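QA checklist item 7 of 12: single-chain prediction sanity check.
[x] sequence parsed
[x] length recorded as 207
[x] structure emitted
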Amino acid sequence: MIIFMGNFNIVLYGDSNTYGYNPFGDRFNNRYGNVLKRKLGNNYNVYEESVVGRTTIYDDIRSGRKSIETVELELSKYNKINLLIIMLGTNDFKIKNARLSSELEKGVQTLINKIKEFNNISKILLISPVLLDENIEKLDSDFDHNSYILSKCASVIYESIAKNNDLLFFDAKTVAFVGEDGEHLTEESHIALGNALAHFVAHNINT
């Protein structure tokens, strides 16, 4: 089914941190997508395409998490996307996925190559994910200290990919932080990220 949209149309493509996952309760209402929509106002439509556990190119025991296999179906239902905002990577940091910076880069670049084939997207904003907790291996056995190191260098990798592919770039860790579980944004960070992205869109995108 095609969604016919007017105004300026933004689609957020991400994982649990776009979904607004709250490890201690219900999904955050003040997730960054909702904050972004409120800040930008009625001339913008903001749609969320978010799945908990989503990766770029890596398999998961749960179905529908591997973006390279699902992204075409998920984005083709929109007839026009003025701005696609991608924030992925946290699940790529897991022990079973990317272990080297080159593997992290490969995952993101492969997904970007796929998305650039679509003819319904005008601009892409690539967001590097937030920094994992330094002690993430003590909080979640899916990660280790190398996961933390990868999350530290992710912004450099993502910025290079954005530059080489003529994409916009934003570093989430400049405004947002993980909470007690070491991997998911706090509600305060969702609000900060939503506000920062609203400012970024207003000052960098011609509508």
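[x] summary fact logged: The beta strands are 8-14, 44-50, 81-87, 121-128, 168-171.
[ ] second reviewer sign-off
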